[in-house]
């Protein structure tokens, strides 16, 4: 058997080859391969990568070699920063990069290192998810951003880089469902909207919390009228139950909403 390679069998008896390497007393798996030669190639190149500091993450784009790019990032980070991380993370001074390809990566605060060192990021439909407790969780939820939020409208990347997920770079514009920030005479204003046989303006309000309560009230009215849509509920943690009830009872709702009837 070639160096760094050992064979294994699948449940159906099919033979395959695994490759691994030990570096700084850490045993690192390099993956599974159909051919012994490929497993050996991964071992030999990993050995070289761990010893040759001139080989960087950018070097991968100029080569067609084993191991995989994800494992390449893991090895280079271990070599350069002395920390072994299973996910494709490269550490910087106060932040880290999560790589998909040599020129495709996300930037995160160092405070998120533990989370992303144990959760792999996947892409689907332009969204970024991690598997958490058996569920696919949008990473935006870590910032208090709703799943249905729209970049540029409900939140924005302050420096214009939509791959920079450092907390200081993300500004939440609209915290609540159905609430949109406006500006009138250089003063903030909040518009609440709801969908029922079309889009309707519930009203415009001085505060974001009032607009969020107005949305909840409009949704309750429509459900009472027989609309079967499952309207999300805005949870407003800064309001006590008494404050919420006071606003709920007094907040005005457009007569267009109160006069709507479901289509038969």
Description:
This protein has 264 residues and is an alpha+beta fold. 25% of the residues lie in helices and 30% in strands. A hairpin with a 2-residue loop joins strand 2 and strand 3. It is elongated.
Shape: elongated
Quaternary structure annotation: single chain
On the 0 to 100 scale, the average pLDDT is: 90
**Major beta sheet, strand line-up:** 1-2-3
The termini sit apart by 74 Å
Number of helices: 6
Structural class assignment: alpha+beta
Order of secondary-structure elements: EEEHHEEEHEEEEEEEEHHH
For the sheet with most strands, the description reads: 3 strands, antiparallel
Report helical residue fraction: 25-40%
Q: Roughly what fraction of the amino acids lie in strands?
A: 25-35%
Alpha-carbon Rg, integer: 26 Å
Number of strands: 14
Q: Which parts are unreliable, with pLDDT below 50 for 5 consecutive residues or more?
A: none
Summarize the structure.
This protein has 264 residues and is α+β, with helices and mostly antiparallel strands. The chain contains six helices and 14 strands.
For this entry, give a set of tags:
alpha+beta, three-stranded antiparallel sheet, 14 strands, 30% strand, elongated
